Amino acid sequence: MALVVVGGVAAGLSAAARARRIDPRLEITVLEQGPVISYGACGLPYFVEGRVREARELVVHTPEYFRKDRNIEVRTGARVVSISHPRREVVLADGRRVRYERLVISTGARPDSAGIAGADQPHVFRLHTIEDAERMRAFLRERRPRRAVVIGAGYIGVEMADALRRNGLRVTVLERGPNALLRDDGETTLAVRRQLERHGVELRTEVEVRAIEPDRVADVPCDMVVLAAGFKPNTELAAEAGVEVGRSGAIRTSDRMETNLHGVYAAGDCAEVTHLVTGRPVSFPLGTTANKTGRVAGANAAGGRERFPGVVGTSIVGIFGMAFATTGLSVEQARAESFSPVAARIEGLSKPRYFEGRKTTVELVADRNTRRLLGGSVIGEEGAAGRINVVATALHARMCVDDFEQLDLSYSPPFAPVWDPLLIAARQLAKML
Amino acid sequence: MALVVVGGVAAGLSAAARARRIDPRLEITVLEQGPVISYGACGLPYFVEGRVREARELVVHTPEYFRKDRNIEVRTGARVVSISHPRREVVLADGRRVRYERLVISTGARPDSAGIAGADQPHVFRLHTIEDAERMRAFLRERRPRRAVVIGAGYIGVEMADALRRNGLRVTVLERGPNALLRDDGETTLAVRRQLERHGVELRTEVEVRAIEPDRVADVPCDMVVLAAGFKPNTELAAEAGVEVGRSGAIRTSDRMETNLHGVYAAGDCAEVTHLVTGRPVSFPLGTTANKTGRVAGANAAGGRERFPGVVGTSIVGIFGMAFATTGLSVEQARAESFSPVAARIEGLSKPRYFEGRKTTVELVADRNTRRLLGGSVIGEEGAAGRINVVATALHARMCVDDFEQLDLSYSPPFAPVWDPLLIAARQLAKML
After folding, report:
1. Which residue in A79, A201, B60, B241 has its CB near the most CB atoms, within 10 A?
2. CA B227 to CA B206: how far, in whole Å?
3. What is residue A372's three-state secondary structure?
4. Residue B146 to residues A92, B123, B169, B339, B351: CA-CA distances in angstroms?
């Protein structure tokens, strides 16, 4: 039996590797249009920053590794231009055809140009592939730009603002919407704004950019632009082959990561997943989800029987050493989903003062009718990742705030205060409900 | 109505404060036998070490604060010698009597001398009260001891070994049982031993100490001894009054923290709590649990209706900068509780290498029949507290390993690797079941 995987980054290679484990005799071919496979795209901002010295530090495995160690054929520079499902074959740009019995579509997503004119000038960058990052590094080194505009205050936008500022540039971030970090959450946006400003980066929200001029964007003069206005799932190839695309804009999948076409799976940034808080399909392109959905797609494509239940929407981003972590729904998002959200926001310490505990802001959101936790955010220089993961775990378990309040969390002075900020927030929230 | 609270540290004062919130007119009296109330006992090792400079940094509130701000009468030096429940009064050492309608017993626990002879010599210390710690500090300063023996490799034992070593002493820890950290877990003990040895502290297990000589313990020469052989709940006062004591040695309580005597509550180190993994009552003396059970006891004593569901047995201790965190049951403990435990132990990184990720060891234990998670441990210099809290949250939710494997944990290079060590361990464990 032949499995073809379209796309050789996180989801595609997870699928191929998992399929190989399930069926040692499966014929597996991975087709990647770019020159490099298996890289950690989330590390790209740190390569631009300079913390990661060489692009190859971000490459996990080479095609040779997959060929020799996993018996998986990986072809780079292999761009699939169409899928003919009735004939069970994919057609490459060079006209060659590859037959499949099972297909995994992991075509990823691409930076959204958001209809902005002038986005193809040499001083305008996206951050999606290793080549993008290398081009940006070369530009920084050779042209020594002094002022940058970052379009978009999502994760990559703020990470790039941080990376460029650390390279000595003046940076302005322009965001179309009212909020940062793709979350309808004014308090978090305010905290992001303050942290950016504290480090000399300006954030302007509700600025609609229509065109990039050679020397400015909107009224901000600059000699470098980073376009980070979000991603669009690459679904065209799939859609033309009859694969159904959901309302989120990504490919519809079952919890086995199968599309509407039998034997055709989708995984990674191009595929929908279920949001476990709302129960609805969403497009939530993240590296971890790509790896997980890839594994499930690969397992099922190889004859296994696994399911991917979904995500709770956990994210974290570091801005000049401060973590902004969110999971589940914000108050506004919960309201839009017809919950009756109530939120408690508290400030605590990550550890006791005598262990130099840092300020930690926790917000928890619950539904007034059911007392079920709906989401939360944790902002702080220390321990935010661990704390948001506790909230994420509680969301997976559909925990109510009263149970959350009683969690037996670890305590010892070098690690946490006796009342963890999470529990203080839960206590506060329980009182308000 | 009159509420009397016996004991003015964590549980007692939490009870009093919570009762006051529920009923502003309640007459509340806290009787503390010692001279100081409301101190963070868990901070005492750091006071001995010198990181905490003044004992008063560990004191959260004074009797004056409670009197003025909370309208709670707190008497120090007030030792209760008996409780007459039929008369609803407690008798103090000075013969005075205090009447109650509701009583909270929060008498704590005391260091167990474990039948060791010579435990009252001036060079022998316990670490339980602020006075104990001050006495030890004075001894270190004035006598300049050079070799210490710590009896007991529980939490306080290893914390004291760390604190004394940092003060320049040669330290040997003698433990009666085969394992450290009160957990039947050979791998964790091995890791503790290695970490202690790396910092010049010797750990000897299965050494039964019968006597402390003036210049040695067993065959280890020393001029200072710390007795940290565990705690005994202070239940005598309660038992004499007819309060039932459980098989764990602590006071039996309902999930409302009420004892068998109506209107008499128990909380903190002297009270049993339910272990949520086994469903059985245990004595698990920890500061967090004392605060939580105190709150519930206080609320119910004041006419509220709250419950304390129980603990999952989460602990964390730092030894020379490395965290040893455990929750739930170890394999051996699970076997003793008639589960069919299977464990996976993996080594991962706390973050990507280019963010200087540190080695992180995760063990997860699940039941072969139900696939339910039973416990885990996390050892590492970074992120262990957050990770053990995720496992603890999953234990509260009675999660199975397959659901745990799919947790949507936060990922971004400054904070975690794309596959969190927790998920790698879960994946491994799911395969083994």
Report:
1. A201
2. 16
3. strand
4. 76, 12, 5, 47, 39
pTM of the model: 0.96
Take residue A170 and report the two structure tokens written for it.
């003046």
Q: Inter-axis angle of helices A421-432 and A384-396, to 10 degrees? A: 50
Q: Is the CB of residue B185 less than 8 Å from the CB of residue B330?
A: yes
In this structure, the number of other CB atoms found within 10 A of the CB of residue A258 comes to 19
pLDDT mean by block of 10 residues, chain B; 433 residues: 95 97 97 87 93 87 93 96 97 97 97 91 94 96 98 97 98 97 94 98 97 96 96 97 97 98 98 98 94 97 97 97 98 97 97 93 98 98 98 98 97 94 97 94
> Taking Cα atoms as reference points, which of B316, B392, B419, B309 lies closest to residue A397?
B392
CA distance B415 to B420: 10
Helix (H, G, I), strand (E, B) or coil at B22: helix
User: Chain A contact for B373, CB < 8 A?
Assistant: no
For residue B354, give the nearest of A52, A312, A413 by CB distance. A52
Q: Is B112 on the interface with A (CB under 8 A)?
A: no
Amino acid (one-letter) located at B410: S
State whether residue B195 is helix, strand or coil: helix
Please tell me the distance from the alpha carbon of residue B262 to that of residue B345, in angstroms, as a whole number: 47
Question: How many Å separate Cα B101 from the centre of its chain?
Answer: 30
Q: Which residue has the tokens 């008369």?
A: B87
Q: Is residue B222 among the annotated active site residues? A: no
CB contact under 8 A, B309 and A51: no
Q: Is B352's Cβ below 8 Å from some Cβ in A?
A: yes
The shortest C-alpha distance from B182 to chain A (Å) reads: 15
Q: Give the DSSP H/E element, type plus range, for residue B170.
A: strand B170-174
pLDDT tens, residue by residue, B108-158: 999 998 889 999 999 999 999 999 999 999 999 999 999 999 999 999 999
Looking at this protein, which amino acid is placed at residue B389? N
What is the distance between the alpha carbons of residues B140 and B134, in angstroms, rounded to a whole number? 10
| Tens-place pLDDT, residues A293-335 | 999 999 999 999 999 999 999 999 999 999 999 999 999 999 9
